[in-house]
Amino acid sequence: MLVSVVRFCKGYVDFTARGRSPERLLNLTAVRGISLWNPKPVEGGVCGSMYASDYRRIRPLAARAGVAARVERRHGLPFIVNRYKGRLGLPVGAVLGAVLIVFLSQFLWSLRIVGADNISERKIRDCLADNGITVGTRKSAVDVDKTERGMLLELDDIRWLSVNLLGCTADIEVREKAKKPDVMSLEPCNIKAKEDGVITSVKARGGFSEVKVGSGVVKGDLLVSGVKMTKLNTPSYLHADADVYADVYSERELKIPKQYDYYSLSENTAERKRMRLFGLELPVTFSFAAYDDAVFTLREESLCVNDTLLPLSLLTETERGLSRHEAAPDREQAKTVFRNAELLYEAFSRPEGTVKRRDLTVTEDEEGFSCHFSCVFNENIAEEAEFSVTEG
Prior knowledge:
By secondary structure, the chain is of the alpha+beta class.
């Protein structure tokens, strides 16, 4: 291996020697200490390899032996350098490229997070940034122990964390805290009503029902008791558990003015693109359009190679202009607005309830439209109320 490296650095040639006495040429080179390897006979002569500097020395020897020497192939660094001698940009570019690689290797190119199943990766990246680790951070400036301690103090859901610097990548391995299993409490408690209503069904799994179907209850009434008197006239306590469904009456008042302004997206759009490299942002496109009222969206597309995010991304900021409009709804349009608002209330505020009846009444005055919305929901009104057995 070492011999091959030396030959490559010094440069060597493959040659053929044809003529009257090619074997004499071999003897003359050996007598003068010229290194020659791989000698083989060919038609009318011999072939072999030797250093380029030695080949110049055998020319008078070839004339004495009555042979003609000819170079077949050239190998090694001197010939490569000579080939690109007139192209200065290539060696300069190679040197600058090597310097750039060495310089960039001093920074973190990407962050790889492993083990975060229930915790937001964005939350972990923000916490890493607060503790001194981001894409573009110089590796020598990273204090691994300090970062690990700081993140464990900030992230309550993590029980163990390890930061490993592998080349230009920071591997963040986390272990989340095990969630506590939902264990039913065995503490004595009653079931009370959390809202007013009319009982429609009682499913008591523990305790003693104090109400019947059709009974009217108000908030705080006892539904299922966790106390029972024994034959010895002493109380026994248990954990009451039940589903108590009731028809619950709900009413709301909504208002809208007869005339109001609203905004909608217009066709005016401005898009700006920026390139982010190691945290440094450089503009790619320019747009000087600006709107008095607008909404903005930001999209980031990162370069990914072999599932590794590189510190090069394209940010696209889109500005959408808003158009201002005046609205003057009539009675039917106002009723539609009220109905949609109530449906949203049912879907997001009382998702577990079943609607049994809806009543919507719209009235009009000088200021606008008013809506009285009444609704009957059938839902579970059971609520646990623990008590202490030491109380008298």
